[in-house]
Amino acid sequence: MIKVEGMTKSFKVAKRSTGLLQATKALFYREHTIVDALKDITFTIEPGEIVGYIGPNGAGKSTTIKIMSGILVPDGGKCNIMGFIPWKNRVEYVKNIGVVFGQRSQLWWDVPVIDSFELLKDIYNVPQQEYKTTLDLLIETLELKDIINSPVRQLSLGQRMRCEIAASLIHNPQILFLDEPTIGLDAVSKIAVRQFIKTINQEKGVTVVLTTHDMNDIEALANRVILIGKGSLLYDGKIEELRKRFGTHKTITADYRKNTNSIVIPGTSIIHWSPEHAVLKLDTEQILTSEVITELSKKVDLLDVTIESQPIEDIIVQLYKEFQI
Ligand SMILES: Nc1ncnc2c1ncn2[C@@H]1O[C@H](COP(=O)(O)OP(=O)(O)OP(=O)(O)O)[C@@H](O)[C@H]1O
Predict the structure, then answer these.
(1) Which of 71, 245, 280, 296 allows an S-S link to 66, with CB 3.0 to 4.6 Å?
(2) CA-to-CA separations, 280 to 231, 305, 306, in angstroms, rounded
């Protein structure tokens, strides 16, 4: 459905000069630097997938989304989405995609939300009956009933984001590009947005490409991640695989009957210890979790044990360090 091959994009950025002399010079002659936003990016996305497109600030995520939505033209490489070249067949192509930029609004600021929806219906030529069915569904699932008649400027960020997502789906697209859809939202709104993305993916088969800095979004939604850094693709695979390969730390929390001997188990480190409670960290490449529990039960009279895998957030931070991005 989405095929990106060897995609490159650079930006020419004017160097900013400091000092009066340099600023005067810059009036006549401007120095430029080239920022390689994307270097040889290749991936394929199948219909019905939810893919998390992640990377640190400035990695090239938004640039990729902009190219895939037809807003930007790459310098090199190929991009074929549902048989379209996004920036060439833009008018026809955009009927098939929905785009949400969390930091920017596609709704008209001063008019009631419903008027923006009506306008989008006309822009995309959505038949009245189809529009009504879609709108009813969006109003119900995104809980828009009480806000749809308010102008966008009066909405909270969470309310606006729900309207943005609805707006991107008015024309029933098969692909949804979401660029940081949960940025700045409170916990409840984040969960609502995630739930909705899941629903349209499962019930309507919409393919979703999602960029986010919130790893909870990724864990809740994506089963595959594409990691980019400094414009290069660094990892493309399943989240479980990412965990297996990079998330080798586990935390074991144990409660036991009073025992004043400290707990030393090779392959583990003690994060916290008290006579009735201990928290150990282990590296599964050095010792199995089951071996640690066995050793623990030899040393203390266990009452309760919990095992926690390394949070995906930690794994990603570790990856950023490893790839030096
Ligand atoms: N219009 C532009 N002009 C000049 N440079 C740009 C432009 N757009 C992006 N860049 C540069 O390209 C690089 C990639 O930017 P991009 O916005 O794609 O990153 P990102 O991964 O989306 O970052 P963030 O997480 O901060 O949103 C950055 O170095 C950025 O400064």
Answers:
(1) 71
(2) 38, 11, 11
Asked if pLDDT for residue 295 goes beyond 90, the answer is: yes
Q: Whose CA is nearest to atom 28 of ligand 1?
A: 58
Q: Does ligand 1 come within 6 angstroms of the Cβ of 58? A: yes
Taking the centre of ligand 1 as the mean of its atom positions, its distance from the CA of residue 172, in whole angstroms, is 29
Please tell me the distance from the alpha carbon of residue 49 to that of residue 198, in angstroms, as a whole number: 11
Distance CA 198, CA 142 (A): 12
| Domains within the chain, CATH numbers bracketed | 47-243 (3.40.50.300), 248-309 (3.30.70.250)
Q: Is 93 helix (H, G, I), strand (E, B) or coil?
A: helix
pTM: 0.84
68 lines ligand 1 (CB under 6 A): no
Cα 207 from chain centroid?
A: 14
Interface predicted TM-score of the whole assembly (ipTM), two decimals: 0.97
DSSP 37-56: EEEEEEEEE-TT-EEEEE-S
* pLDDT tens-place string over residues 56-87: 999 999 999 999 999 999 999 999 999 999 99
